[in-house]
């Protein structure tokens, strides 16, 4: 309330008007009201029973009123907005005026030295404690009818939490892929290779073939990280994305200006990104696609023997070979990891992904060609 009411006061005096209250706090006021009502009514029954031992501790009415109506639903609305709120807060904290507001609120004694992120996560923890509360009530209940009702409420709350975890995971994944669309730059074919000449009048029609669509959130990202690509005259920092159906190799660009000249230094980093990509986003950097995506069924992985390691001073290195449908090698990438453990992890992840992709392809193939027996009447 300190952070929320202070922000409301500042906005009423025409400060921080561009800060979106809903994106930051969602339905926190409604959640506070609902939670406070539940706790107040709950303890009112306890106090009445303590003062008058003849009165029954009827929790059923309270449980039915709150858990069968809006308590879990109100929590779900807040929790689904939580990741977005943290993402939005990270962006706002870079501003000097918003930083002053945060610092002033944090000095309030009621905050007990907690920062806003510490307070925003509290309702998530509250929701997970409800099943424990209900379970304790169920254990001490003597009436079988009430016992059955409390158990059904506990199961409903647990299911609500399980459903919420799936939704939050989906939202985090969606948010991550949305930022990957911003970070990964797909150069046009005439920029990637100067041998290709395309008249200006045709470039626009070719641009309409958007490459970014293959990075939709339906593609599962299995592994990612920074490696070094050994070229003929230099070593190049690259960032690899291993999906369940292809491998993408990108060059790391740490420029302050994004492709096209727009300033990205103020873009917040999605919490679901790796620390390295978060750092790259904050610096205004990006990843430029080095070559076409390598389908896993066209990818061949080779380890380097000790002789090559000694002769060419290639430590923790392995080779990725891209072949076309005719078995011709069309690209080779000699990659080096920072450690031997990182190299083994990469090779294991790629080999597993290739194996799983092959199994899925064979299963799909058998399904297509497994027709049911024809009817004798045909």
UniProtKB/TrEMBL annotation:
Pfam families in the cross-refs: RhoGEF
UniProt record, GO biological process: Rho protein signal transduction
Species in which this protein is naturally found: Crypturellus undulatus
Domain DH: 1-174
CDD domains: PH_PLEKHG7
Domain (PH): residue spans on this chain: 220-355
Signal peptide location: none
InterPro entries (UniProt xref): DBL_dom_sf, DH_dom, PH-like_dom_sf, PH_domain, PKHG5/7
UniProt-listed SUPFAM superfamilies: DBL homology domain (DH-domain), PH domain-like
Entry superkingdom: Eukaryota
Protein name: PKHG7 protein
Any one GO molecular function term: guanyl-nucleotide exchange factor activity
Gene: Plekhg7
């Amino acid at each position: 309330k300190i952070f929320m009411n202070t922000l409301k006061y500042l906005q009423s005096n025409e400060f921080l008007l561009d800060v979106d209250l809903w994106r930051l706090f969602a339905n926190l006021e409604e959640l506070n009201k609902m939670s406070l009502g539940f706790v107040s009514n709950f303890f009112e029954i306890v106090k009445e029973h303590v003062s008058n031992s003849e009165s029954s501790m009827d929790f059923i009415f309270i449980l039915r009123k709150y858990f069968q109506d809006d308590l879990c639903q109100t929590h779900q609305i807040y929790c689904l907005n939580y990741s977005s709120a943290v993402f939005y807060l990270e962006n706002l904290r870079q501003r000097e005026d918003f930083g002053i507001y945060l610092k002033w609120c944090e000095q309030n004694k009621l905050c007990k030295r907690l920062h806003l992120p510490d307070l925003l996560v509290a309702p998530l923890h509250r929701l997970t404690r409800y099943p424990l509360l209900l379970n304790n009530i169920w254990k001490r209940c003597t009436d079988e009818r009430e016992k059955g009702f409390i158990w059904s409420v506990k199961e409903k709350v647990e299911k609500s939490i399980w459903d919420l975890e799936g939704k939050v995971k989906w939202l985090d994944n969606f948010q991550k892929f949305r930022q990957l669309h911003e970070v990964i730059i797909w150069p046009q074919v005439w920029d990637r290779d100067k041998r290709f000449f395309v008249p200006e009048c045709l470039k626009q029609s070719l641009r309409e073939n958007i490459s970014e669509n293959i990075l939709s959130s339906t593609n599962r990202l299995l592994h990612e990280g920074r490696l070094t690509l050994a070229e003929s005259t230099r070593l190049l920092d690259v960032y690899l994305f291993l999906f369940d159906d292809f491998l993408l190799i990108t060059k790391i660009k740490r420029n302050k200006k994004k492709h096209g000249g727009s300033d990205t230094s103020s873009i917040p980093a999605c919490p679901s990104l790796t620390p390295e990509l978060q750092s790259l986003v904050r610096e205004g950097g990006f990843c430029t696609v080095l070559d076409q995506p390598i389908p896993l069924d066209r990818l061949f992985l080779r380890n380097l023997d000790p002789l090559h390691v000694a002769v060419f001073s290639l430590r923790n290195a392995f080779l990725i070979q891209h072949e076309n449908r005719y078995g011709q090698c069309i690209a080779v990438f000699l990659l080096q990891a920072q450690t031997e453990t990182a190299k083994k992890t990469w090779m294991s992840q790629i080999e597993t992904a290739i194996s799983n992709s092959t199994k899925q392809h064979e299963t799909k193939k058998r399904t297509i060609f497994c027709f049911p027996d024809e009817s004798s009447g045909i």
